[in-house]
């Protein structure tokens, strides 16, 4: 048990933006929401999963929709209370703690803001260890957990709660409501008891985000390595490519950001070309026609000077980036995990091959 204040939020937002693999929303917007809540209501208590009673009700809080929309359609401030009251009334008992559903610039921050404003603790655990674009894509689905009853509320005060027969149906129905509400809503789903969260959650995600964020911020202070070497060491990352963005093809449809970023090589990669495709999060990285990384491994673009992660909605012509691959949470590499988030689910015509195997002999 410890407290999260503004310095910790700064590092968590930075580290979670890396783990968001390009998705999860703008870390700056999310950070402002969390900092504002902590300034008004005080620091948040963060709990290790093992500190949560087995029968306690733990509820993830998140934003659903296209991350670009949230930059223009902000959160109103009353959404957390509405979600709390709706879920508590349904289960007939109070919520013990909030938790993030994924790592990402916004969805790592909203649970902190909700916990601060409602005086609840935050659990150091999530359901992805990164970010994914669809609601059923969580480790809790692998464990047989249900996404519903799911509560949704928009900034105007519209709210609903519904149940579905599968988590995929939750995604389909919730996406339709999200579009009707303008492209983004606040949601609470996968309410669970502490024992289930301990068994199927990704433990330590908030702490890992904070550690990564702090290390990225101090990467140029490492004396015995270049900043790039230090960054790759602390993240355990694989350098896939370094280049200048020469084009970004982007489309918002069905509540998702779809697109492709094209890169011309610079430095050691001069004369080569690459592209990264995304659906909110980065899905594939291809260099000179060779597929070097696919979901569920993390594909991240970072600024070559600062190593600050660049989310998909911030990609722009001329920016110089390094494409980095990170290994995913082990449960995603199982048969059940790949059925949910493997490359073929996203229409990529290849079997999953772990990042470290694709990069054998150099990327």
From TrEMBL:
Chain ranges of the S-Me-THD N-terminal domain: 8-163
Q: Where is the S-Me-THD-like C-terminal domain?
A: 166-355
Source organism superkingdom: Bacteria
Q: What is this protein called?
A: DUF917 domain-containing protein
């Amino acid at each position: 048990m410890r407290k999260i204040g503004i310095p910790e939020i700064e590092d968590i937002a930075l580290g979670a933006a890396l783990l968001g693999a390009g998705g999860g929303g703008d870390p700056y917007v999310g950070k402002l929401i969390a900092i504002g809540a902590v300034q008004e209501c005080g620091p948040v208590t963060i709990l290790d999963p093992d500190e949560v009673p087995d029968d306690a009700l733990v509820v993830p809080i998140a934003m659903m929709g296209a991350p670009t929309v949230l930059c223009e359609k902000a959160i109103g401030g009353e959404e957390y209370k509405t979600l709390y009251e709706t879920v508590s009334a349904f289960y007939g008992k109070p919520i013990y703690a909030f938790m993030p559903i994924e790592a990402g610039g916004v969805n790592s921050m909203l649970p902190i803001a909700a916990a601060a404003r409602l005086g609840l603790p935050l659990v150091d655990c999530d359901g992805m260890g990164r970010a994914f674009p669809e609601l059923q894509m969580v480790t809790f689905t692998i464990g047989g957990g249900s996404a519903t009853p799911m509560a949704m509320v928009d900034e105007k005060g519209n709210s609903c709660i519904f149940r579905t027969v599968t988590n995929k149906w939750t995604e389909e129905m919730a996406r339709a409501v999200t579009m009707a509400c303008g492209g983004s809503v606040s949601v609470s789903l996968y309410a669970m008891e502490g024992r289930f969260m301990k068994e199927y959650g990704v433990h330590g995600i908030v702490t890992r985000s904070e550690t990564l964020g702090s290390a990225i911020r101090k990467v140029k202070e490492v004396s015995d390595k270049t900043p790039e070497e230090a960054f790759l060491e602390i993240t355990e990352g694989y350098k896939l490519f370094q280049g200048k963005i020469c084009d970004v093809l982007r489309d918002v449809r069905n509540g998702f950001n779809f697109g492709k970023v094209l890169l011309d090589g610079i430095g050691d990669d001069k004369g080569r070309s690459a592209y990264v495709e995304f659906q909110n999060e980065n899905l594939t990285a291809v260099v000179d026609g060779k597929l070097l990384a696919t979901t569920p491994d993390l594909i991240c673009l970072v600024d070559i000077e600062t190593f600050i992660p660049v989310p998909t909605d911030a990609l722009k012509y001329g920016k110089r980036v390094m494409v980095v691959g990170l290994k995913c949470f082990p449960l995603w590499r199982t048969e059940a995990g790949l059925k949910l988030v493997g490359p073929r689910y996203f229409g990529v015509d290849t079997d999953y091959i772990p990042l470290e195997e694709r990069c054998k002999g150099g990327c």
